[in-house]
Model the fold of this input.
Amino acid sequence: MFGFFSSLDCSLDIFFVEALLNGVLLAGLLALLALGLNLVFGVIDVVWICYAELVMIGMYAIFFFVQTVGLPLPLAFLLAIGLVAIAGLLLHYLVIRPVLDQPPINQLLVTGGLLFLLQAAATMAFGIEFRNLGLRLGSMNIGDMSFSWSRIITFAVAIAAVVALWQFLTRTYIGTAIRAISQDRQIMPLMGVDQKKVYLATSAIGGGLAGLAACLMVLQYDIYPQIGLQFGPLTFMICVLGGLGNMVGGFVAAFIIAQFITIGGSCVATEWGYAVAFLFFMLVIFVRPQGLFGAKS
Amino acid sequence: MLDLKGVDAGYGAFQALFGISMRVNAGEAVAVIGANGAGKTTLMRVISGMLPASSGTMTMEGSDLRTTPPHKVVELGIAHVPESRRLFPRLSVEDNLRLGAYIPSARAHFAERLDYVYGLFPRLKERRGQFAGTMSGGEQQMCAIARALMSKPKLVLLDEPSMGLAPVIVQQVFDLVRRIRTEGYTVLIVEQNVSQVLKVADRAYLLEVGRIVQSGSSAELAASDEIRKAYMGI
Ligand SMILES: Nc1ncnc2c1ncn2[C@@H]1O[C@H](COP(=O)(O)OP(=O)(O)OP(=O)(O)O)[C@@H](O)[C@H]1O
Ligand SMILES: [Mg+2]
Done:
């Protein structure tokens, strides 16, 4: 048994600890991605299948602002967040709103259709080449372990964003309405809440979170039109594992899945990390269809 | 204060209310009584804008309710405590109250209103951090009424506040309604507990299959043989 693991280079050594900690760092980004999707689903009851493509738009926007327009990076980041927030708003107003009362499969197909549209548009505009900003942030070394600064920064910012969103949801009136709306949509008007406005605000925040994720992802990943295929399914899996619409569940699930990816990846090969994570997901879903933290419906 | 003339309403092709004309004057407590399915809840929904009227006129202190968007009705001073309470079960008591104060005019006085309703219902203050759905039926009714009072309404619509509660608690709920009256709110209350509600209300309307068939002072209605037989089991 032990021999098997050591043959897979997965003994309890320094590399294992490094993988574990890298998993924690990765979890921050995944938690941020899952949060946006969960927020939108929890409020509007529609899954944005094209969520990762919003992130892709944000990444290209940053690339464009920096490389073509020549803006400083922080300004490019702010503009990208604003741009993707507006994209979220438009997505709701133009695409979701007309199918709000239609069967889930229709909603799935319109946002899924948008996914291909956005990928095609990105390919037309920027080509299929892998792009990056050429940033080199280096890494921090602790003993024999090495952690890239881009991952550390990503983790810190993602966690800060999660905390900030939580404050917003618990401390403000509109945040309270956002938490309430899925519990009883019909009586929201009796509270004086305009449901349409809550939907728009949620979509803008969901978009803004995708924009923020884009800022963090350009620090470590290349930009290409299909990057959504790498992160989209992963994000959905985390959301479903945590119980779709359950923001706390999604947060915890991100940490679990990230461990499968990094430890699985360091034991065998990176591709295996994803496979092991999905395998775990399938097993959980067989036993608990509502996800780890979802309520039985 | 509230004035309805010839109001019709229904659900799709089904008409539930026929030519309802009624008024509620400032300071009054008015009851709407009637059997199951008479249309009492529908009437409350129409007044608070949850369900559009299909014809007739409806005004609150002169403002046209039929052209007011549903989420703006509460800003005209109408707070609706819906049938079966409809609290947000997985929000704390205080978050429920916060939503009651969602309109801009109420937000400005949130702390003050919160003190006020906690003064009226000290039990809610003890339970303020608890999920509303985990409270007892009586406590939930208190919370639903408190949530409505957070908006500082002029008119409170109460839809069967005693529904599903044990007899002892029902008594407390009617005491509560009296309390709200003395606090100066105008009340429109729907009840199946006819003998009790006629003791609280000044006037009452009797609704039968979507039509008002009788109205008058509570004393008159309580003395009516028909009502005593059909609704009070005497
Ligand atoms: N959402 C709805 N869709 C279709 N019909 C409805 C709906 N709600 C109520 N109705 C119908 O409208 C009529 C009046 O219902 P309403 O709920 O107003 O009665 P009620 O007087 O409040 O009865 P109860 O005392 O049981 O609460 C009933 O015939 C009912 O079946
Ligand atoms: Mg009713």
Notes: The longest strand of chain B covers residues 14-24. Residues 44 and 157 of chain B are 7 Å apart (CA to CA). Residues B 40-41, 83, 160 surround magnesium ion (ligand 2) (CB under 6 Å). The radius of gyration of chain B is 17 Å.
